[in-house]
Amino acid sequence: MGNNKTWLVGASQMAVEYTKVLKALGEDFLVIGRGNASAINFYEQTNIKPITGGIENFINSKPEKPNSAIVSVGIEKLKFVTELLIRFGIKKILVEKPGGLNINEVIELNSIAKTFNAIVFIGYNRRFYSSVIKSKEIIQEDGGLKSFNFEFTEWSHVIQNLKKAPGVKESWFIGNSSHVIDTAFYIGGKPKQMSSYTSGELSWHKPTIFAGAGITNQNALFNYSANWEAPGRWSIEFLTSHHRLILRPLEKLQIQNIGSIATEFVVLDYQYDENFKPGLYLQTKAFLDNDYSNLCTLDEQVHSLTNYYKEISK
């Protein structure tokens, strides 16, 4: 079973997407799943047969340690599986966002990773969208960011009918909305001052309406809003001295020039975002190439979630 550079743990749909990328990168990898049904579905989509029986049984068979691992299981299992891999001795792990079911799991996982000298990254693939990469370039060319705003409204009328494991819907803010928030603060800087307001309640999530503003460590002013009880969508806008950069949807970049009310889509090379799940190719490549400059570390995630919980989700 040895000589595999990377373990892909999980046979989920997201694991299928990772498999497409790993194949394209020519990576030597092994897929470890749990049940037969998911393994069959995985095989039908990828022509790869996962090892079944779960990661615990596989580790108990004393396989050779891989160079790295990618964890792509349900949010309720992220912390459990990643901890198993860390304790087994794997030193480099990419785990799907947000790294745990809640902030306490993420904090505990970070402590374990430090104890075992493992480096763990959170899979915020939207950092690697072509639209986001281009936005960063334009912001730098324009002399920096002046301000930004974002919306992370979720479609609660759809979410309420989804069948999820216990605790998943209750953690929707950290598990899903954090994608938008992470992308905004990844470019705009980390909040150093923030005032936040919340209201609203659903049977499975509280709060549901969010508003706030602040300033980042890059001295960019920001404001945000979300209303899970009304129509809306994810979006981010970055404002410089020359341009308004609009990510709505996040996968595409629109630009507005100073002195104009017109907006137009920026022509970009979207090949990686069109041939693979957007952002996943460049994120996985960066992880495997040890290029950590744009990846979210577990330490960073703990710091960010602490801020989010203290302010945005209070």
From TrEMBL:
InterPro entries: Gfo/Idh/MocA_Oxidoreductases, NAD(P)-bd_dom_sf. This is Myo-inositol 2-dehydrogenase.
